[in-house]
Every structure is written in structure tokens, then in C-alpha cells.
Fold this sequence. Notes:
Elements: H1 2-49, E1 55-61, H2 87-101, E2 105-111, H3 121-131, E3 136-141, H4 151-159, E4 162-166, H5 175-185, E5 200-203, H6 214-219, E6 228-231, E7 234-236, H7 244-251, E8 263-264, H8 271-278, E9 294-298
Protein name: Radical SAM protein
Coiled coil: 11-45
Organism: Helicobacter ganmani
Amino acid sequence: MHDxxxxxxxxxxNAKQHQKIKARLQQLEQQNKDLIFQNNTQKxxxxxxxxxxxxxxxxxxxxxxxxxxxxxxNHFSQxxxxxxxxxxxxxxxxxxxxxxxxxxxxxxxxxGGEPLLNPNCKNFFAITRKHFPDSKIWLITNGILLEKQxxxxxxxxxxxxxxxxxxxxxxxxxxxxxxxQCKEYGIPLIFYDNSQIQKTSxxxxxxxxxxxxxxxxxxxxxxANNCTHFKNGKIYPCSVAPNIHYFNSAFNQNLPITxxxxxDIYKAKDYNEILQFLAKPIPFCRFCNLAKWKSIGEWKTxxxxxxxxxxx
Length: 312
């Protein structure tokens, strides 16, 4: 009996020790997660503040407006009137961009708005490929207008090596037709996320008073020094700043853009100056409340109300 009591007591003692060890392991596991998070945060900050060796990606609108009406679009396309880039000016700007970057841009992305609303896509494809023979060129689209494209469009995609990168929205699109066309013309078809994922809605939260810390907004921004935007001969570090005028006009606001928010390719002395510019905050960063940007779940349409861009 004495040995049995000692055995039972040892079980209780060991159980307590096991609980302490388990609690300590959980604590260490959480500390490890915190350290990994801090390390990744610092790495991301360092990456944003380090000038790129050359531009990995630059985005260009082929249309300002859209045939969808997305909630809180960070290009403000649901608020924009119909608009397309002027083809003659576009060619002049692309030629200058190629000159100053030595044609060294890894990826050029045609976006919008919905780029297929532009009836002259093939001309923009040809001009861009002429001046950037080695860059990847993507067309981002919601897919609605792909069935209506002429043979010239598909031939231009093939000739100019355009990759089709649709975003899958919860809308009716004949993807079988699109896949067959891409297969026929040898055009890469790669869904922007993947073919099984449908678009969700994201809330872009702004601070109209402009009292946020530019540095912290820049560091926390997934677009900064990554989703570079090219518009009217100027390069911006994001898509929000160059399109904020649609927000201002729709809601009678005044979130100003200054010459310091972009770099003019006609005034930049060289490629290095552009890359240095993109690796630092711009004054407009004070209007973006990046800490509050968030997914709101399944895709929804816009009511074109300012509340879609404010923290309520």
C-alpha cells in the first residue's frame, strides 16, 4: 500500500510538472511567433526603404472607368467618368520611359478601371511591346468583355506576347470560351489569384484630415515601392495618389496632390533618381490609414458613399 501511495503521489507531482512544462512551451511558442512577426515586419520595412535595382512592376490604366461597381475601389474606378489615355501622348511617354529605364522594367501591367473598355487596346499593346521588347506585359481584366473581343485583339495579344491575368468575380463569364481562345492563340491565361478563388471586397480607409505619420503609412503599405503607377508622364509609388482626384470630385473633398507625390520622367536625371524616389514616403501617405485597411468578406457593390473610405 505504501508503494501504491507513493506511485499515486508521483503521478500528481509529474502531472503538475507536465502542466508547467506545457505552459512554458506554449509561452516560448508564442514568443517565437512574436519574434518571427517582428523579423518579417523589419524585413518588409527594409525592403520598402531599399531602392530596387530596377523596377519590378509598373501599372498603367488603359481606362479610368469600369463596367463593375466595386465597393471601396482603391483606384476609385467606380467614381471615375469615362476616360482613356491619349494614344499619341502615351507613345511619347512610353518611349521616354524606355529611354530613362534602359528598357529595364520586369513587368508592365495594363489595368484600370476595366482596360477592355478601351477600344484601342491592341494599339497600346503594340506601342508598349515596341519600346519594351523583353518585359513581361500583363492585362488585368474582370473578363466580362473578353467574349466580345475581335480576332484582331487576340492576334495582337499573341503577337505582342500579352499575358491574360483575369480576376474572378462572382459574375457570369464564359471562362470556357476564354480558355479556348487563349489555347488557340497561344496566350498565357493565369488567373490573378487562381481559378478557384473569387474576388472579395476590401475597405480602403482614408484620413481626410491628413494627420497620419507618413513613414508608418508607407512602411505598412502593400503598394509602396511595389505597385508603382505610371500616368501622364509621372511615376507614383501607389495607385491611390494618382487617382484621388476622383474621390475629391465625388465627395467634395480636398486631399491634395503635390509635385512631391510623383516623379516626372521628363525631369528626372536618370533611372537611379526614380528608384531612390520610390523608396521613401510621399506627402500623400499622411492620408492613408493603412493600419485600418481590411477585408470585409465577399465581394459587394459600391453605393458610391464616402463612408466606404472612412472608419466609422
